[in-house]
Amino acid sequence: MPRTPEENERIKKDKKERILKAGLTVFAENGLAAAKMSDIAQAAGVSYGLVYTYFSSKEQIFVELLNDLFASSNELVAQLKNMKISPLERIKVIFTQLFTMHNNDPTGELYYRLMLQLTFHPHLWDKLLIKDVYSEPVFQLIFETIKQGQQSGEIIDINPQEIVLLLGYIALGFNLRGHEIFENDLNEKNIVDLIIRMIKK
Amino acid sequence: MPRTPEENERIKKDKKERILKAGLTVFAENGLAAAKMSDIAQAAGVSYGLVYTYFSSKEQIFVELLNDLFASSNELVAQLKNMKISPLERIKVIFTQLFTMHNNDPTGELYYRLMLQLTFHPHLWDKLLIKDVYSEPVFQLIFETIKQGQQSGEIIDINPQEIVLLLGYIALGFNLRGHEIFENDLNEKNIVDLIIRMIKK
DNA sequence: GTCTATAAAGGGATAGAC
DNA sequence: GTCTATCCCTTTATAGAC
Questions:
Q1: Domains (ranges, CATH) in chain B?
Q2: Does B16 contact strand C, using a CB cutoff of 7 Å?
Q3: Environment class of residue B39 by beta-carbon count within 10 Å: exposed (0-12), middle (13-18) or buried (19+)?
């Protein structure tokens, strides 16, 4: 019995998603260069050749993944913007979410590990929807929020670029090594409080 | 006219150093997996084959480099320990040095970029003198200094592991993206002050 | 001690059967 | 739509001349 076109679409979509998901973990674990297409195929549970019916190259999987992740980062930012809270509170929510998400959902960490690859393969920026790290949605949101907090007098009055860079370092460092918080049974709430302490007026 | 044995030793040492230096930049720029031995040879100004007379494999260059860097990190820490200053001052000096060194000497950044590769090739830890990132000398020094500062009442009284992790994130993030401070003409002194503000009692 | 040339292996990408 | 088998290029590592 032949498959309906709709069924075919569903199958194709499912396979593509599987491959992307496999790519995310394989790239995050090994890095772009060391990741093997055979690993991705295996992790996705499909044959080696099938990967190439959905993606033309290893790079393309990587690029598509990162663009998808930028998109969901945009959604996250939209949610955060909808919250009617003070700038300082918003910073607190962002970092709390960053830290607690880590526990439940490893995607955030994988996301950063992928972005980190761009440090070693900068030519890929050309193929991405977002052209530099400053344009990353969460990064942008933090920057705006800092400026708002300075206007409202909640946040310390130094060059907001300096603050956002420092917060960016924390986010970057955390996302790369955040699992250690939980391995060592530390309280992420304390760490967020330290951050707030640093920028509160 | 034949070379003396001493001269030979000098040549060999020089060549080895050249290759290591080339390896540092090539690995830092491209990552371990994407770095090519031919790139290292070219950067070192020697023939492809010669690299293998001094090192048995690409991995070995990488391992030797990292071990050398750990050693100089140890020296740096010894110097910092010799300074007779308060714990809080010491933290300030460490981060100031971290930030200003960046300007003059890129080795620090390259060092971190190499260490970062271990995230993607964790099996290499087995071949290193230092067995995990917590044992990295500067990291250790910060940890000790935080505890001293808590005893002397200068530094905020929360789990020192939490503080040191956060400071570690900053150092990691900075070393990966620190060049941006200078690209954007920011004042690194302000950033150090923020860090102190965060941990000062 | 240094080079060029070559062997050997690994992995990305494709062809073609089912 | 999916698979297996194969091509082919890149890169590691070695051999052997100078």
A1: 1-55 (1.10.10.60), 62-199 (1.10.357.10)
A2: no
A3: middle
